[in-house]
Amino acid sequence: MSRQSHILSILQLFDTGMSVWTVEEIAKALGVSVRTAYRTVRELTQGGFLDPVSGAGYVLGPAFIRFDRVLRQSDPLIHIATPAMERLLDETSQEAAVILCRRFKDCVMSVHMVEGREPHLPASYERGAAMPLFLGAPAKVILAFLPDRVLRGLYLRNDAELRRSGIDSWLSFKEQLKPVRKAGYAMTQAEIGEGRLGIAAPITRDGLVVASLSLVLSVRSNRPDADRIAHFAEGVRRAASAVSAALDVSEPGAAPR
């Protein structure tokens, strides 16, 4: 295993549910010597990527906080989408939140949120939290617009999980997503959080889905007003289309000024 692989493998350990690791635990998990693990941990600590804590353990360090700030300031998707997210709340309801999500590995991750000014239930999509790829409007609308080759790969990697949810074949999985693609948006209720309804539309760049834009509302009824939902869905579609159009003409890697 190369030095670069050691570094990546150590950092990825902190995404497995354990927030504190000792050098000995790292060495055992990666199948390397304690000496090798210690040398790499020392380099990561010097760079601020790991931080020592009591009990000879290490946690993720302050460098990640700095990089998160840099990412928030420089991510073109966040920069372009934020005004559209604010307008969407003005055009629909301030008793809601608008969430920007991206696919990350076999999950969906919130990267930005704009909260309405009026009281509403908190959205379940905290920035950086990995959410299921097969539940919730933000995830389903991304799935519906993925190329078949990519979608089939996701299905094969998650076959057991999908079968437990009642989807017993690739064809039934694909058929379930067709109405979402045809409508141009996904809507789910109480799949991620009780009392919440989500409406999501795809954001594309050069014709490929890269993210989703979602309006998350607090609902008190299992049968919300259909006309109101249709109005909201059209607003979400327009907002996502506006972001997609802006992404298509933006400079790759351009940072906000």
TrEMBL record:
GO BP annotations listed: negative regulation of DNA-templated transcription
Residues annotated as domain IclR-ED: 63-249
Keywords: DNA-binding, Transcription, Transcription regulation
Alphabetical list of InterPro entries matching this protein: GAF-like_dom_sf (IPR029016), HTH_MetabolicPath_Reg (IPR050707), Tscrpt_reg_IclR_C (IPR014757), Tscrpt_reg_IclR_N (IPR005471), WH-like_DNA-bd_sf (IPR036388), WH_DNA-bd_sf (IPR036390)
Pfam families xref list: HTH_23, IclR_C
GO molecular function annotations of the record: DNA binding; DNA-binding transcription factor activity
Protein name per its UniProtKB record: IclR-ED domain-containing protein
Source organism: Ancylobacter defluvii
